[in-house]
């Protein structure tokens, strides 16, 4: 009896983990729209939205320009990116 219950719990846990994994993959998949379509969407966006996106991209470029073999994000970098990402709206939201 306890082994049957344990088996059911493990089966349910695996199903939940696989479902979460699938949702994460779908949410982080790159956009498949062509570049021209993205450019047309950018033409319709307001100046404040484009400025917010540029503000988000600048710290990422600063991280990549660091003169080390493999640049890493510091906790301060991550906090800034999360703060700025909250102000950028994308078509997927």
Describe the structure.
The chain has about 90 residues and is mainly alpha-helical. The chain folds into two domains: about 30 residues; about 45 residues. Helices cover about 70% and strands about 0% of the residues. It is built from four helices and no strands. α3 runs antiparallel to α4. The radius of gyration is 20 Å and the shape is elongated. The model has no long low-confidence stretch (mean pLDDT about 85).
Can I get a quick summary?
By secondary structure, the chain is an all-alpha fold.
From the alpha carbons, calculate the radius of gyration and give it in angstroms: 20 Å
Poorly predicted residue ranges: none
- Percent of residues in helices: over 70%
Whole-Å distance between the termini? 46 Å
Which helices and strands appear, and what pairs or packs with what?
Blueprint (H helix, E strand, L loop, with lengths): L1 H27 L6 H10 L2 H18 L10 H11 L8
Key words describing this protein structure:
93 residues, 4 helices, 2 domains, mainly alpha
């Amino acid at each position: 009896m306890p082994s049957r219950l344990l088996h059911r719990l493990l089966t349910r846990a695996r199903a939940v983990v696989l479902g979460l994994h699938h949702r994460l993959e779908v949410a982080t998949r790159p956009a498949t729209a062509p570049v021209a379509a993205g450019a047309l969407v950018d033409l319709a966006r307001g100046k404040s939205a484009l400025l917010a996106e540029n503000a988000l991209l600048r710290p990422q470029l600063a991280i990549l320009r660091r003169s080390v073999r493999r640049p890493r994000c510091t906790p301060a970098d991550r906090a800034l990116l999360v703060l700025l990402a909250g102000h950028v709206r994308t078509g997927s939201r």
